[in-house]
Amino acid sequence: MTASATSTARLLIVGPQGSGKGTQGVRIAAAYDIPVVSTGDIFRANIKEGTPLGKQVTAILDAGDLVSDELTGALVRDRLSQPDAASGFLLDGYPRNAAQVSDLDGFLGEQGAALDAVILLDVPREESIARLTLRATEQGRTDDTPEAIAHRLDIYEAQTAPILDAYGARGIVDTIDGVGSLDEITERIFAALALRGLVRTAAV
Ligand code: ADP
What we know:
The protein has helices at 21-32, 39-49, 52-63, 69-80, 98-110, 125-139, 146-160, 163-169, 182-195, and strands at residues 9-14, 36-38, 88-92, 117-122, 173-177. The protein is α/β, with parallel strands linked by helices and 204 residues long. The chain has a single domain, classed as Rossmann fold. Strands 2-3-1-4-5 form a five-stranded parallel β-sheet, sandwiched between helices. Helix 6 packs across helix 7. It is globular. Bound molecules: adenosine-5'-diphosphate. Adenosine-5'-diphosphate (ADP) binds at residues 17, 39-40, 43, 60-61, 64-67, 72, 93-94, 96, 100, 143, 152. GO terms for molecular function: AMP kinase activity; ATP binding. Monomer.
């Protein structure tokens, strides 16, 4: 790569709760030198800090429901407009329904941009539940109760999985087997992105 080479990577990672999106997302973002934009993390940080936004969404997160498309969309728009996201980003947790896909298309389209790749971490539901149950004891997330977990997985299957059809029609979905060691899964993702000509800027 020459010194003048510029690369962008506008990526989305999708997968059921417990698929390892968060962990893999951080690794991918480091390798491509792009920020992770995780809507769940943004909401949780606001709840922790007791901001007005946090107060507004606490009960919604605890129930495992989705925050409104308007509120979430405005938040993402604002975050993606910051300078560090100008040459790429990795979205985690957004978009997660059809309306959010069209909001994101609209926003990126205004800049003549589009997603380069959608990484689907494929994990069976039983495996997701097992991992989330473990995480509940380790991290104590208030939405990792059995009821909220089941509800979030139902929403994923009903609303989020179908967005992959839209992205699949654009030829940008890479389905990655999400069962294996963390390093194996990272390598699978890197290999798929390399096949798309997406250039890593940092050695990770
Ligand atoms: P998980 O994938 O384990 O459900 P996330 O951290 O992605 O966890 O999201 C946690 C919660 O934050 C969701 O259950 C929902 O309440 C809210 N949230 C995150 N992203 C979105 C989104 N794109 N639209 C609406 N609500 C969202």
